[in-house]
Specification:
Helix content is about 45%, strand content about 15%. The chain has about 210 residues and is of the alpha/beta class. Helix 1 links the parallel strand 1 and strand 2. The chain is globular, with a radius of gyration of 21 Å.
Length: about 210
C-alpha cells in the first residue's frame, strides 16, 4: 500500500479486485489490471462424500475465512489512531473539528455494518460530508480516497463476520480459518482449524447444510 516517494516502480505488477483502483495504480506500477473475483468450477462443485469426509467436514452451519483480527491494513483503526493522537494535543476549534471527524468515522462504520448485502461506504461518506459541511479527513498523503474507503472496509468486514457468527452461534456454527478464531470465546461456536483452499474447502461446502458467506 506504500510506494517509495510516489515514484513509478518498474518492477511492480498490480492486480486488483476493485476496478476503480486501476487508475490509481497505473502511475505507480509498470502494469495495473483489474482481476475480478471468480472460482474454479473444477474444484468447487457438487461432490459425493464418503462417511469419513462427512464426519470430518460436516456441519449444520459453517463459515470458512479469517476473522480479520489485528489486520495491518485495517483503515478504520489507522485513521482512528491518528485522529486520537491529534486530539490529545488539540484545543478549541481544532479539538471540536477532530471530535466531528471521529464522530463521522464511527457513523460511517456503524451505517455500513448494518447492511450485509451492499457496499455503501462511498455514498455514506458523501452524505456525511453533506450533513456535516466538511470533507472527511483521510490520512495525509493518502494516494486517493477510494483506497482508504476500501481499507476502512477491512474493519467493517471484520465486524460483520464476528457479529454474524455470534448471532448464529446459539444454533451451533462450525468455523474454519486462521487461528484468530481460537482466541474468541463465543458460546456455540466450534473452531475446526484451517481448511486448505483447493482440497478441503470444497468438502466443507458440500458437507454443510448451510454455509455462511460474509
Amino acid at each position: 500500500w506504500q510506494f517509495a516517494d510516489g515514484k513509478r516502480q518498474e518492477s511492480l505488477f498490480v492486480f486488483t479486485c476493485s476496478p476503480e483502483q486501476v487508475a490509481s495504480y497505473q502511475p505507480l506500477a509498470r502494469h495495473a489490471e483489474f482481476l475480478p473475483f471468480a472460482t474454479d468450477l473444477d474444484l468447487f462443485r457438487p461432490m459425493d462424500l464418503d462417511a469419513d469426509e462427512k464426519a470430518r467436514y460436516g456441519a449444520r452451519i459453517s463459515f470458512a475465512g479469517t476473522p480479520l483480527l489485528d489486520n495491518p491494513v485495517d483503515g478504520y483503526e489507522r485513521i482512528r489512531k491518528g485522529l486520537l493522537e491529534m486530539r490529545v494535543k488539540a484545543v478549541g476549534d481544532e479539538a471540536a473539528h477532530l471530535d466531528t471527524e471521529l464522530s463521522m468515522l464511527e457513523s460511517l462504520v456503524e451505517t455500513q455494518c448494518r447492511d450485509l448485502f451492499r457496499w455503501k461506504v462511498p455514498e455514506i461518506v458523501k452524505e456525511l460530508e453533506r450533513l456535516r459541511g466538511r470533507t472527511f479527513l483521510f490520512p495525509e498523503g493518502a494516494t486517493d480516497r477510494e483506497t482508504w474507503m476500501i481499507l476502512i472496509g477491512v474493519h467493517i468486514a471484520m465486524r460483520q463476520r464476528l457479529e454474524a457468527v455470534k448471532a448464529l452461534a446459539p444454533m451451533g456454527i462450525d468455523v474454519w480459518g486462521s487461528e484468530g478464531w481460537a482466541r474468541l470465546e463465543i458460546p456455540g461456536m466450534r473452531y475446526r482449524g484451517f481448511a486448505e483452499w483447493g482440497r478441503e474447502l470444497p468438502r466443507v461446502l458440500n458437507a454443510s447444510e448451510i454455509n455462511l458467506n460474509v
